[in-house]
Give the backbone structure.
Amino acid sequence: MTKFLTPLLTVNPGDAAMSDAYADLLRHSMDQHATRPAITFAEESLTYGDLAGRLGGIIGEFERSGVGPGDVVAMYTADKRAILLADLAAMLMGAIALPLNNRFTEPEMQYYMEDAQPALVVTDEAGRDTIQSVADQQPGDVGGLVDVAAVLDAAPARLPEVEIAPGAPAFMLYSSGTTGRPKVLPHPRAVFRLAHDAAVGLRDGCGADLPPTAHVAGAG
């Protein structure tokens, strides 16, 4: 089970350097609290400093695969550690994270790949054949593949400096499709920031309505 040992972000609401972009808040925490525990997985625990280095390495892997700001990075795997790290890395480099249920079948993935046009898909051995088959049948819909091992074993690197507009999408989720074909809903970074602020009490009177993650996590 993945646990956040401390609030993911701890910042002073009056900090003049704080912007409306959630990525800036994450960077602030990693800069100011490098030795504090950030996340623990069953396999390892990371301080904020460890997390910064790991995410810098993953961003390097993504960039070498041709991903840039505004591109979609899809995650089609049951490895929740890889999903979380890839999601945060995509957000910090200005890309758009798209977590997908690892139980989706090939016909379902054909639709998602055609609709989302990801520049990169992070997948594992169980999902590679499905994604490769979709890529072969629908040239141009899948930019590239990266194995979860490249995410989990990325060598630490310095985080790049990226200017990201608060209104730019941080991630996108699809509806369940119970009344038709699944529809995508991009989530701006400023909304992600609002959800964080409400969770840790940085702003009074704020609330957040977060969508269920059963379709992403594969919960039955």
In short: The two ends are 17 Å apart (CA to CA). The longest helix spans residues 48-64. The beta strands are 3-4, 37-40, 45-47, 72-76, 96-100, 120-123, 145-147, 169-174, 184-188. The chain has eight helices and nine strands.
